[in-house]
Amino acid sequence: MKKTMKKSMVVTTIVMVLLLVVALSTATFAWYTAQSNATVTETLVTSANSTSASLVIDTAKATSSTANQSSVDITMNQAINPAMYNSATAPVVGTTTYADFKAAFITYTVDNAGNYASAPTTTQVAAITDVKGSGSSAVEQDSFYVTNVGGVASGISAAVTINPNYYAEKAVNAGESVEGLYTKNGDAYEATQTGATAEAGTTYYELKANPFLRVAMFIDGKYVGTWASSEQAAVQYANITIGAGGPAAGDTPAAHSNYTATASGTAENVVSSVAPMGGVQVQLVAWFEGDSHTNAYAGTGALFTVMFSGVAAANND
Questions:
Q1: Which residues of 212-241 are buried (b: 16+ CB within 10 A; e: fewer)?
Q2: Reduced to 3 states, what is the DSSP secondary structure of residue 36?
Q3: Which single residue of 27, 66, 123, 130 could bond 107 by disulfide (Cβ 3.0 to 4.6 Å)?
Q4: Who contacts 201 (Cβ-Cβ below 8 Å, separation ≥6)?
Q5: What is the CA radius of gyration of the chain?
Q6: What is the DSSP letter of 254?
Q7: pTM for this model (two decimals)
Q8: Which residues in the chain come in under a pLDDT of 50?
């Protein structure tokens, strides 16, 4: 009976972070052939929400069990760019630090022959730059906090979902169903009507998610996982010397290794147990998988959501 009562006290909570990335085509950028261009200049998390009072999300840890802050606005000002994690090994859960991971990315330009057009250099990846709570001013910081204000310990799971964010042409034959697709009217995309079929001479588009967006999460400064599109779940990393002794323009790009990310939308337990009034710090890093990010994706943006859920705490039997 005691065991049943304890489990019934675990309140499931969902915290959602909605991230919108606005993309602009600009100058020639790394990983693309010399004629290509793409970068992302602004990243905006519009909200982080909780559907239950047991998990509070705010710019700092909650200090009262009556705290009810249920959302924050988050901005990631650093551009999301094509990049590669430069390390001899894949990141290790619970060991790799936020600072080390964030500082380990490289970028380079590839010419039409597939060789380095310029030597690889270090690059910055997107991270949180300020957080704004409801009714308060934005605070310049690289994280937000989730606090368990419930009466019992709770674990936390997280899931990142890579959402549709750009339109791509889709080949269809005249007379085929185009329901769920879009046509373009000037700069606007318009959904086809229910039951519509393809008309000759009309170009149709589908709304797709960028398959090469990667989002890594850190809890209390330690790596807990990377999420990626289920279409392309391999994350590249390499051990490339930067500067003297490293590759130069004209060299063939160095080989890279892969580690497997968690598929988009899949939940992973990221905190085994948070005591009542305990809290965790959450940090995010985002980038495009550069070595796979082909010309077809130049200028596309990225959209993803992050969902935190309260789960039964470890050893809470």
A1: bbbbbbbbeebbbbbbbbbebbebbbbebe
A2: coil
A3: 123
A4: none
A5: 22
A6: P
A7: 0.80
A8: 1-46, 316-317
